[in-house]
Design a protein that fits this description.
single chain, mainly beta, globular
Length: 113
């Protein structure tokens, strides 16, 4: 699994965390309450309502990354498997866009400073 992560380094590098404003603020633990939050690391995707742990990463020919994850939603028992697509933003190459398996954009994230 690690080798696949390193092979995709040329396309999308998740070695440093990406997030929206609140995702980056909360990357080391819950510091501020936010009803909208997105934090993306090389191992997980965290939103205000769920935490997803990656089990597989598949670099795609177009440079995007398809991630298989198990997600735990707030207030629900068990983990549901799901897939996300992570790709570069068409508007800003420094940002990444995260979409669910239905293609719904969850938000865009920038590298946390």
């Amino acid at each position: 699994m690690l080798s696949a992560g390193h092979a995709s380094a040329a396309s999308i590098d998740l070695s440093k965390p990406y997030g929206d404003k609140y995702g980056c603020i909360n990357r080391n633990g819950q510091e501020v309450a936010a009803d909208k939050m997105l934090l993306l690391t090389d191992r997980e995707l965290i939103t205000a309502a769920s935490a997803c742990t990656f089990s597989d990463k598949q670099p795609q020919a177009d440079g995007s990354l398809v991630v298989t994850a198990k997600c735990e939603a707030e207030g629900e028992e068990g983990q549901a498997p799901t897939k996300f697509t992570i790709k570069r933003s068409a508007k800003n190459a420094k940002k990444l866009v995260v979409a669910d398996e239905d293609g719904n954009v969850m938000g865009d994230v920038s590298r946390c400073k």
